[in-house]
Amino acid sequence: xxxxxxxxxxxxxxxxxxxxxxxxxxxxxxxxxxxxxxxxxxxxxxxxxxxxxxxxxxxxxxxxxxxxxxxxxxxxxxxxxxxxxxxxxxxxxxxxxxxxxxxxxxxxxxxxxxxxxxxxxxxxxxxxxxxxxxxxxxxxxxxxxxxxxxxxxxxxxxxxxxxxxxxxxxxxxxxxxxxxxxxxxxxxxxxxxxxxxxxxxxxxxxxxxxxxxxxxxxxxxxxxxxxxxxxxxxxxxxxxxxxxxxxxxxxxxxxxxxxxxxxxxxxxxxxxxxxxxxxxxxxxxxxxxxxxxxxxxxxxxxxxxxxxxxxxxxxxxxxxxxxxxxxxxxxxxxxxxxxxxxxxxxxxxxxxxxxxxxxxxxxxxxxxxxxxxxxxxxxxxxxxxxxxxxxxxxxxxxxxxxxxxxxxxxxxx
Length: 413
Prior knowledge:
InterPro entries: FAD-dep_OxRdtase, FAD/NAD-bd_sf, MTOX. The protein is of the alpha+beta class. It has a single domain, classed as FAD/NAD(P)-binding domain (3-Layer(bba) Sandwich). It has helices at 17-28, 65-82, 101-112, 123-129, 153-166, 212-220, 296-310, 363-376, 391-394; strands at 7-13, 33-36, 53-55, 87-97, 118-121, 140-151, 170-172, 177-183, 188-193, 198-206, 227-237, 254-257, 263-265, 274-279, 283-284, 322-330, 337-340, 349-353. A hairpin with a 4-residue loop joins strand 9 (188-193) and strand 10. Helix 1 (17-28) runs parallel beside helix 5 (153-166) and helix 2 crosses helix 5. The protein is globular, with a radius of gyration of 21 Å.
């Protein structure tokens, strides 16, 4: 495809997991691709950094499991091409009160998805399957599924950037995009940066995480209801004698706990002797002016209490050993935004954001979708109606759900 100097087939703005995957997928299709990042590559200021992310196919919504299962295949394909592994497969375990609406929706969704291999467990079966690792309260149930795993987050982003470069993509960091305009003379999109650089692309993909609302408003005048949240990732010390049983080799799963608060965790992997357990929630923030200590105390107390109840005697709960900041980009319905920007820019600009703390795992499939939307004007084999921009015009709350928010409500304010 055509490329000359600062002219590209596809300009991708934002080099987190979504942008890096999109750049790779577009380059794999023979396009001349430019990937722009406003900070250093692999920075720790957004949502794609850190040691790990979970992958799971158990969702209350029916439209995510097929995407996760395709993402699994694409993760494996990328790892094979790179000769490097970033995904460790594990079982996944969901738990919660038997009457919890979100968990009941997870179970119903799994039953309708024949490709999601899951098993419903009562307390006795949980004890037997996980050798007494979890102590569920009276009235709780569990769901064990196969499609779990732990992804090395920063290393995964680096892998896709390296693959994009191998396919011929051009990567530039310290390029904050300030303007995206239709270029009628050259029949493309002109992308300008704060450094004074300007690039022409036939198409443009915007996926800038917590900065999505800010950039989309600046370049297209659209107001997107994507709220950045400041959250924290906690690693806790495992008590002596329990280190092995909380590892993947010991059979410990990735997990999600539904209830008054939503707690998630991974097996002990990236830091031997430590386990990652966090609370799915946070405080609204301005990504350019964050309070880096915001809500840490609330999160630590809530997670510590959960650990004492669910993993008694296995993990120290006085305080986490490591606390790392991160950000979510929340939509009102916790569903993604994947759509053409429209207006003056029509179908020449694709925007993706609002991944609401659960998108990283689907980076490869979202990257494929974005590349196909930019190149072909449509994405193959996926229904995108749930991710359209227009849903917020029809209803400010977005897609209707018949279950509770998964983000902890007392923190999401």
